[in-house]
Design a protein that fits this description.
14 strands, about 20% strand, binds S-adenosylmethionine, binds iron/sulfur cluster
């Protein structure tokens, strides 16, 4: 999948959910009073204007509404954000505009509105096709409802994807293979398959610490990972990233912007950006707490709380960390240009000998299927 060398992505964060799933540590909040969306629209517009003043003249190639649950936004809110984007930057004629959605019937009724507002790709959080598992994950929808929402997505957007979580308590490779094949039968061009991670400060973390939740050990998780790769590759949906599968040419271009270390702006509470300004790459982050973000934008015109230039070493480490997640790997020459030094040939030789990495015919350095389960260790070794 090619994306322009000067690709520029825009991430928009919607920080609200109907309820908080017990495994989730994303910046998502539950509010019992109605959300003042008009106030949010003003703040999003202001932050887009402030960001565009810092990085003018860009052509936006991808836009991603993430959350939280962006499908809870009014389509008019999404439309206003897209209009503001087009007012301040050029927008590529083939721009990819993705919106993350929860698969409840209420949200599926908005899909056509999102389509009219300019969204052309939806990513649904299906998570499981098993009602008991969905309950355990604290989800508000059944498998039937999720599949109905997938059908509405298929009818409303030219591109759609959905997420499943595997390595759930008690899950066997056999049961997962059956569930995954059922999912693939409903999938279009793209699937995200995440191993359940027990994040600190979540209810699942406390439950596991108390011995009330048992997740698959390393060997069992590895068997589930292997099943995932085999089933998906057999169905023409190979992994192009450690957790993402697509048919050729159908990768999520917005995520490629991150993984190939292109430039992107983050708008909304707790959004991160990487902006190239005056020869420096700057890492930006906004205030996470939604109401504090609103007040900050209303008084300062932006919600940025972190804005620092990255050193060549940091840029190069990030390039490795993100790029090695991709099946295509990284260009060692680009690493050398960023870091001001070559990757250590002795470490490469050892990792190659261990079967964790390989070099492709066109000189890309990539992690092998055997290396992916130990990706963090491989990256740490190469970056040292
Ligand atoms: C930001 S969430 C948003 C999607 C949407 N709010 C939903 O839940 O349907 C993106 C995806 O991350 C995955 N995810 C979140 N927490 C996870 C965890 N602890 N382990 C594995 N996957 C997780 C889920 O598959 C989820 O769909
Ligand atoms: S998984 Fe999705 S719906 Fe659940 S709390 Fe996280 S962001 Fe919200």
């Amino acid at each position: 999948m090619t994306i322009p060398a000067d690709a520029f992505g825009l991430y928009v964060h919607w920080p609200f959910c109907l309820s908080k799933c017990p495994y989730c540590d994303f910046n998502s909040h539950v509010r019992h009073a109605a959300i003042d969306e008009a106030r949010f629209v003003r703040a999003f517009k202001a932050e887009i204007a402030a960001t565009a003043a810092r990085v003018p003249g860009r052509t936006v190639s991808t836009i991603f509404f993430g959350g939280g649950t962006p499908s809870l936004m009014q389509p008019a809110t999404v439309g206003a954000i897209l209009d503001a984007t087009a007012q301040h930057w050029s927008v590529a004629p083939d721009v990819e505009v993705t919106l993350e959605a929860n698969p409840t019937s209420v949200e599926a009724t908005r899909f056509r509105g999102f389509r009219s507002a300019g969204v052309n790709r939806v990513s649904l959080g299906v998570q499981a096709l098993d009602d008991t598992a969905l309950k355990e994950l604290g989800r508000l929808h059944t498998a039937r409802e999720a599949l109905d929402a997938v059908a509405v997505a298929r009818a409303s957007f030219e591109r759609y994807s959905f997420d499943l979580i595997y390595a759930r308590p008690g899950q066997t490779p056999q049961a997962w293979a059956v569930e995954l094949k059922r999912a693939i039968a409903e999938a279009g061009e793209h699937l995200s398959l995440y191993q359940l991670t027990i994040e600190q400060d979540t209810p699942f973390f406390a439950l596991r610490a108390a011995g009330k939740l048992t997740t698959p050990d390393d060997d069992a998780a590895r068997a589930l990972y292997d099943t995932t790769q085999a089933v998906c590759a057999g169905a023409g949906l190979p992994a192009y990233e450690i957790s993402n599968h697509a048919r050729p040419g159908a990768q999520c271009r917005h995520n490629l912007v991150y993984w190939r270390a292109h430039e992107y702006a983050g708008i909304g509470p707790g959004a991160h950006g990487r902006l190239d300004i005056a020869g420096e790459r700057r890492a930006t982050a906004t205030e996470k707490q939604p109401e504090a973000w609103l007040t900050r934008v209303e008084s300062l015109g932006h919600g940025v709380v972190t804005d620092e230039a990255l050193s060549p070493e940091q840029i190069a480490d990030e390039f490795l960390l993100m790029g090695l997640r991709l099946a295509e790997g990284v260009d060692p020459q680009r690493y050398a240009r960023l870091a001001g030094r070559q990757l250590n040939p002795r470490r490469i030789a050892i990792l190659r000998e261990e079967g964790a990495i390989e070099t492709t015919a066109d000189g890309m350095l990539r992690v092998t299927l055997a290396g992916f389960p130990v990706l963090d260790a491989v990256v740490a070794d190469l970056a040292a």
